Amino acid sequence: MSIDLEALYTDLHRHPELSFQETRTAGIAAAHLRDLGLEVHEGIGITGVIGVFANGAGPTAWLRADMDALPVTEETGLPYASTATGVDPDGHTVGVMHACGHDMHVTAMIGAVERLVAERDQWQGTVVVVIQPAEEYGAGARAMLDDGILDRFPHPDIVLGQHVTPLPVGTIGVRPGPQMSASDGLQVVLHGRGGHGSRPHATIDPIVLAAATIMRLQTVVSREVDPHDLAVVTVGSIHSGTKNNIIPPDATLQLSLRYPDDQLRTKVLEKVERVIRAEAMASGAEREPEITTLHTLPATINDEDATARAAAAFQSAFGEQAVIDPGLFTGSEDVSWFARDSGAPLVFWFWGGADPAVFAASAAAGTLDHDIPTNHSPFFAP
Amino acid sequence: MSIDLEALYTDLHRHPELSFQETRTAGIAAAHLRDLGLEVHEGIGITGVIGVFANGAGPTAWLRADMDALPVTEETGLPYASTATGVDPDGHTVGVMHACGHDMHVTAMIGAVERLVAERDQWQGTVVVVIQPAEEYGAGARAMLDDGILDRFPHPDIVLGQHVTPLPVGTIGVRPGPQMSASDGLQVVLHGRGGHGSRPHATIDPIVLAAATIMRLQTVVSREVDPHDLAVVTVGSIHSGTKNNIIPPDATLQLSLRYPDDQLRTKVLEKVERVIRAEAMASGAEREPEITTLHTLPATINDEDATARAAAAFQSAFGEQAVIDPGLFTGSEDVSWFARDSGAPLVFWFWGGADPAVFAASAAAGTLDHDIPTNHSPFFAP
Amino acid sequence: MSIDLEALYTDLHRHPELSFQETRTAGIAAAHLRDLGLEVHEGIGITGVIGVFANGAGPTAWLRADMDALPVTEETGLPYASTATGVDPDGHTVGVMHACGHDMHVTAMIGAVERLVAERDQWQGTVVVVIQPAEEYGAGARAMLDDGILDRFPHPDIVLGQHVTPLPVGTIGVRPGPQMSASDGLQVVLHGRGGHGSRPHATIDPIVLAAATIMRLQTVVSREVDPHDLAVVTVGSIHSGTKNNIIPPDATLQLSLRYPDDQLRTKVLEKVERVIRAEAMASGAEREPEITTLHTLPATINDEDATARAAAAFQSAFGEQAVIDPGLFTGSEDVSWFARDSGAPLVFWFWGGADPAVFAASAAAGTLDHDIPTNHSPFFAP
Amino acid sequence: MSIDLEALYTDLHRHPELSFQETRTAGIAAAHLRDLGLEVHEGIGITGVIGVFANGAGPTAWLRADMDALPVTEETGLPYASTATGVDPDGHTVGVMHACGHDMHVTAMIGAVERLVAERDQWQGTVVVVIQPAEEYGAGARAMLDDGILDRFPHPDIVLGQHVTPLPVGTIGVRPGPQMSASDGLQVVLHGRGGHGSRPHATIDPIVLAAATIMRLQTVVSREVDPHDLAVVTVGSIHSGTKNNIIPPDATLQLSLRYPDDQLRTKVLEKVERVIRAEAMASGAEREPEITTLHTLPATINDEDATARAAAAFQSAFGEQAVIDPGLFTGSEDVSWFARDSGAPLVFWFWGGADPAVFAASAAAGTLDHDIPTNHSPFFAP
Fold this sequence. Notes:
The structure is a homotetramer. Chain A is built from eleven helices and 18 strands. Helices cover 33% and strands 28% of the residues of chain A. Chain A is an alpha+beta fold. An eight-stranded mixed β-sheet of chain A has the order 1-2-6-3-7-18-8-17, with helices on both faces. The first copy, chain A, has a four-stranded antiparallel β-sheet with strand order 12-14-10-15, covered by helices on one side. A two-stranded antiparallel sheet of chain A has the order 4-5. The first copy, chain A, folds into two domains: 5-180 and 299-371, Aminopeptidase (3-Layer(aba) Sandwich), CATH 3.40.630.10; 182-296, Alpha-Beta Plaits (2-Layer Sandwich). In chain A, helix 1 (5-14) packs antiparallel against helix 3 (102-118) and helix 6 packs antiparallel against helix 7 (262-282). Strand 12 of chain C pairs antiparallel with strand 12 of chain D. Chains A, B, C, D: This is Amidohydrolase.
């Protein structure tokens, strides 16, 4: 093949871009797709790219990849490690890294399209390449759909997506039905009253309020969710205060919530809100906390029939043992918006990015979670 | 008098500058002092100003004012409210406000020097005006001393300083002995292990660790300090994480600790460190927390004799009832470094900045702390 | 039939007895078994009863029931509600109630034996009735085995047990493999230092230590266990102090831990112990916490073949739809000691005790957990 | 003198009695007083004793001692250590000990009366000996007053009381004005919903609710009370649950609150109640917590003039340096009800019970709180 995929990968890895800022990545992907003969459209949903390859009569498959990186400072020590920084939505300068492997996704997409084009006489139909921005914000698929892609491009008969994970290289994980959880991102502003650090009684300390709230939120999962159910309540960020001796007026938390279905989602959201409001009361806060939704991701549900066909294809390509049921993932994806809005069946699968030898040794030792950096870790290196 | 002090004050208030960045303020103060005939030196201890006025034989008095503002966004709604922003030491853009009244201090100093110069035939000796930067960082006095001012300027026979507070206008608060507390500023970095927000078991969550630490730190004052003793443990800032669905690798806290003496200081520091280390253990943290000292401020101890003389002078000037014993303040000051390093006696007093009518009504209603914005509040408006 | 089972049930319900104190219950059960013609042995494992019914050649089945009640004050308002009290192992007088349905188990056993005896010509073999004490302490099965029952009575070819649950009446829940969780009961004594309630600084407050420990223990499940895994960490009792103004020297907690397998058991026990020891450190405790194991219950694992046969028998008796897979229960049982020690296969199933109409309405409304009192509730009324 | 006070003391120490159960102690005291010629009345305020000694014209002094012991198991190892047990108001059997020195108070009273009687020709007037029960419950003075003692016995011109403390032997601590704090004892019942320990989601866990409440209560003192003010919020007992695997329906806390004045009392009570109610809300509790007042003790305020005279008398008797200002104590007393109800001035003082050598060494080492067991400690041994 003519495209040097390894060079493409290390280049993308070295130059990660935050959500909705993926202009360099999008440009590179678009250029490759154009070189391969696709009809290419850029700037869709801010920075998304669509490539259409019509290859005669037949069904239309949407192949989706995501391309944004994370505000994580890379610590892998790899020769092609990122030293990039970016400005996050709060205006803070942060390290940026492809800590979730979307650089792999773009590279794999280009490689796949190159092969589809090369082997165009072996299949018929239309391939729509969808390279979406801002998967990490759970907002990119929505943005492309809101930009009218269902009207502007061939309607899908199937939507296909994939994600690299810490499974051994060569393994495909896919299951019919629920594959990834539903998720909400919340932002919570806790209002206290500011003042001098030496006069706490004249203030309402928002940092102590935040700490009490975070400790109490732990009890939602530990006490209020059926131990058989899967639910996650993560406080992923907290920011409050500018100086050691000023008690600030408020504290801002960002929460990530996960659940496999809508019934548990409703319950957990209620409980989380109840805790937040009651803790503000316990502090004697004079203003209600502000709770805003950052994003809502639906559960990723694989179509039964389409998944069976895809699994069979993977088995014939990679061997029967290479395809496993990875179980329900607690992570979430916005790929399913494409399927939900279009009414097309979805197949979303995982592929392994971990050294099989390390994986096998760690699995035997029961230290998998410890030995292999997971997605979003500063050490993630598939 | 020829200097429009009100215009000076509102101008300074409108243009606050963060610690060690007070170039505009220093320039204005230096210009006034020069106009008044003093020998002026700028850029001492980065941005400090020294003005010397020799008026014949006699003792040398150092008059000290501070001039830095705070990273607080003003919410007073005053016509001369600040809309300024600045960049704090972490590189964050923050609102800036004279929320501690140092604009008043500079204005009062210029007014006092104007009068001393005008009435120069009524006194003899040398006045050294010390306008220091970065009192809020507890670092400005140190910086000026490290810049050699004890060698370069007339040695003090007495050091005088003052601070505006929410006492009624016209009231002076001063006491012999301990006037303000000793204080330490600590920075604490709590190390966890980062990862994806949906896989908490593969991480060590530093935000939960921080929350547990903050809640436990409350028990130092509530359970471990003699209720008769005065101690304050404030967590003034916490920063961790960049996004709702990433569990970050660490969390950074800034603490402000107060105590009236060295014995209690030692105890509280030990207890605070014990809590921080044990909570990291409770989380199974793989790296010890890093605890660094941001600043150490000694107790502000007023000289007995000099304070008696100053109090008598205040009484003859403002009336006997205007001078009160304000008790030991929990706040801290770096003014005493000037006295400690030079060996000169110190007198440091408070002057009222609150509307006497509002003060009286609030005191009667027992709502003083609520009605009158204290120093460091975004509503502070003496 | 001649035995009035309803009268037997209401009589047992009215007269509940705590673990290892079930002398009245044991006597009644033994009398019935004797009347039915069994060879009966009492006082085995303190208060256990064995009844042997040899009915010709054939396999030996052990049928096991448990008979102890719980230290719960009944609030059902039923005409036959318990008003009994008992003395628990700590010497405290407590209300006692059959809040877990063991009165049903004894009644059902007598009814079943009556029928087996009546229909003795339809089967062959030996039935050993095992009525065990102290299932709630996880100690009764062990006590009977330690009393030598495997040597003294016919060896089982199969062990059968059952439990009433809030499933609808007429439903049988049974599954091959893991049916109930492994469990440990821990007692934790946290040592502080006692003193007067007005002088906390001269003490080490064990109640604050206990509170911090309990809050921190929540994070074991919420943060350290894979959300896909089932684990429960319950603090079921806390006792400390005698008076409002004395800070006591220590606090005693009792914990109940659940997990489906030994690997997670090891992890959770390690984490729980780590939290307990670190929190004692955070309090500056001078003595290590004492952690003792109250009981260890193995997972209840149903034999695949025997369960298939039992399920088929249930289906033919109650209808195909009456038999469901109830999933893995978080509760634990000590019945499996009989199977583990003897090497015989185990089948343990659940039978419904809830009004089907109430159950159906609650299930539709999603309020099952709320509407139907669960085992161990003071309102439990199957 | 004829009474062997040491034998009396060790006998009383060996036979401590809980509040309102002091029949043996009262009997012994009454017998001694009768032997000394006083007119004695027993059973006043349940177990109180009044002895009247009329010695001619002159003022009437009430001398008050208290006689109840505490539910503390003695650990002093003294030859005359208590091994007594008693039944507390909750029906629990507890160790009982004179851990607060009331045995000393009774002994000292008998010794003082013996001497007053012996030296009757050196003074004139009436002495009323008041030996009250249940000082530890803050209820004994109230009970005696409610029994009509102001009407039945000579009205006091002065009320005198004393307490042994860990000051060096030979030292008297007394001050005009506030001598001991006001105090409230609260009982709080937190209602959850009970259930099986393995099904937390079907319950509302009152133990987690209690833990969160206790941690939050720490912030009342650490954040909401002016660091200059003295306030104590102690949770002295917590009881919940009977067994490790039952989640109980409720938890009961007992709190002891201290403050020097009524204004702070009102604030602290409001804040404590706010925290308790909000934490119940955070748990989703279906019933409000029940907060009941166990006792309310007023501040012990010494009369200025009477205290000056008493201090002078102490100085002439024990030497000038023996009399110190002990500061405001955080402990509380019900002695002041006698003064408040009668309108008579009060003098209440402390006398030292610590070995002066140990005291001096510990004070020098700064380990006083650690080395000398304080009142209510199981090691208290004046």
